[in-house]
Amino acid sequence: MAPKKEIKTKAQIVAAVAEKAEISKKQAATALDALVAIAYAGAKGKNGIMLPGLGKLILVNRKARMGRNPATGAQIKIPAKKVVKFRVAKAAKDAILAK
After folding, report:
1. Checking DSSP bridges between strand 75-78 and strand 65-68, what pairing results, if any?
2. In whole angstroms, how far apart are CA 40 and each of 2, 11, 45, 51, 66?
């Protein structure tokens, strides 16, 4: 089910959801905003949040490591930090990469 045209903006996503679900654009925008808020809150949890058919949004602790300044070539220490990762679901991979 490829979309008729390429969707790049939030307004285009809202319009597509409204048309597909047969709801108003205002309702679609509210639903999209709610989904985003739930995903943000869920990603902070212990196990992240699974978006069925899309993937999993998780918060990961990245260890400190040594890196290299590309401009000077000097080694630098990169501190530990938390990062957000998205793991794509197998169903999404299969749907997108299907031959």
Report:
1. antiparallel
2. 27, 20, 9, 12, 30
70: tokens are 């590309």
Tracing tokens 């899309």 back to the chain, one arrives at 54
Q: What is the pLDDT of residues 9-39, one digit of tens each?
A: 999 999 999 999 999 999 999 999 999 999 9
CATH (domain of 71): 4.10.520.10
- Rounded distance, CA 18 to CA 86, Å? 26
The domain containing residue 91 runs over which residues?
A: 47-99
For residue 58, what are its two tokens?
A: 């998780």
What whole-number distance in Å separates Cα of residue 86 and Cα of residue 55? 7
Q: Is the same domain home to 27 and 54?
A: no
In a domain, 2, yes or no: no
Q: Is residue 28 part of a domain?
A: yes
- Bridge partners (DSSP) of residue 82 are 61
